[in-house]
Amino acid sequence: MKDLTTGKESRLILNFALPMLLGNVFQQLYNIVDSIIVGNFIGKEALAAVGASFPIIFTLISLIIGIASGTTIVIAQYFGAKDLDRVKRAIDTLYIFVFFASIFITIVGITFSESIFRLLQLPEEILPQAKSYINVYMLGIIASFGFNGTSAILRGLGDSKTPMVFLIISTFFNIGFDLLFVLVFKWGIVGVAVATIIAQGGAFITAIIYLNRYHQIMQFSLVNMKFDRDIFRKSFRIGLPTGFQHTFVALGGIAVLGIVNTFGTDVIAAYSVAGRIDSIAILPAMNFSAALATFVGQNLGANKSSRVKTGFRTTLFMSSVIAISVTIVVLLFSQFFMALFTPDPEVIRIGKEYLVIVSSFYLIISALFMTNGVMRGAGDTLIPMFITLFSLWIIRVPLSYFLSRSMSEMGIWWAIPIGWSMGLIVSYSYYLTGRWKRKVIVKHEKPEENGFTTAAAKTRP
């Protein structure tokens, strides 16, 4: 556990963000390694099939992830207020919710996967492999939810190092199983999905065993778990807008994928590979935003609002420096990165085109993440949801369609940074109003900063 309410803001946020970033880099390596092995040893059709599957998977799980993120904020604020009883009840509530939600998502995903692919006009030469991959992947979604739920709880408690360790271990297992199932057993694209399931399941089980033995608050017990309706209501209120935001982002990704699919296998494969590289490139912004959200949650819970502004400024500066550095790396090595995934020259050319355009605007998406991170940490998740819907559905998706009519696939790529830019303008304008501060769930009788005194604190009913 890490108390983020005392000490130098920049050092606290950096030390909290870096382990989380490293862990998420390894988590993304699941997808990176899968795509490299598929592209080099199975073929570009299989590579396109994996790429087409992920927007569907993300859509199915995004609402649950968003609601669970609300619990992270609740845990952070209760922990900042030193209310450990409610922290423990929030943990139990999250696990129970995630268990039943994962069963529901698995059934829905397997039942409707083929219909969704056909609705998106996925080429027939790709559809059978895409269906096989997503159906097997969904069988292991309970392990993925369990591990990511555990990581979210630990982040709310200020612990970003423990999830990192288990992510690194599971990533190496995933790579080993990928090579075994694809190169030795010849299971093809199904082997890639099975490897991911085993690695994530092993990480979840190992994490639970470790935490039960060594962690002070995290004690996983099926017998003693209790579902707290009041805490779930708070988590639901905070997390539902984020869940809707994730869902509409995912649906936007599906809409864009439907446009990409009309350009054929080469563009689908290039979009898949470039998206993997893109996801790694923006990880620093995402993780600094998550660290900032926890920092804001704990400090507002402890009635130390003046630290929030300082934390935002220093995080914005650090993430901007990193965003500029990442942009330079991607611009210089975009062709090399694409060639890691596939030897096909046309796929490499199209993917490089994507990366050159999109990476030039990483500074914009980084600033957008930081601004939204402050609002989420305060519990104000509704406005970021509307901002995301605006930038995606009003700007990016329509532009992707219209620009692709005149600029081919390049028009789809240009719509991405235009959407980011419009979102940043609206998000920062709302941040300046200060209205997001009203959403904190831990209220204080005195507006002054009074350290950790919880007698003056009361919880919103």
Would you mind describing this structure in some detail?
The protein is mostly helical and 461 residues long. The chain has one domain. It is 81% helix and 1% strand. The chain has a two-stranded antiparallel sheet with strand order 1-2. It is globular and about 55 Å long.
Helix and strand topology:
Layout: H1 9-41, H2 44-80, H3 84-119, H4 127-139, H5 141-156, H6 161-184, H7 189-214, H8 229-261, H9 265-281, H10 283-301, H11 306-341, H12 345-359, H13 362-378, H14 382-407, H15 409-433, E1 442-444, E2 457-459
Antiparallel strand pairs: 1-2
Helix pairs in contact: 1-2, 1-6, 1-9, 1-10, 1-11, 2-3, 2-4, 2-5, 2-8, 2-9, 2-10, 3-4, 3-5, 3-8, 4-7, 5-7, 6-7, 8-14, 9-11, 9-12, 10-11, 10-13, 11-12, 11-13, 12-15, 13-15, 14-15
Can you tag this structure with a few keywords?
mainly alpha; 81% helix; disordered C terminus
Q: Name the structural class.
A: mainly alpha
Relative strand content: under 5%
Report the C-alpha radius of gyration, rounded. 22 Å
| Sheet of most strands | 2 strands, antiparallel
Specify the number of helices: 15
Unreliable segments (pLDDT under 50, ≥5 consecutive)? 448-461
Q: Brief description of this entry?
A:
This protein is mainly alpha-helical and 461 residues long. Helix content is 81%, strand content 1%.
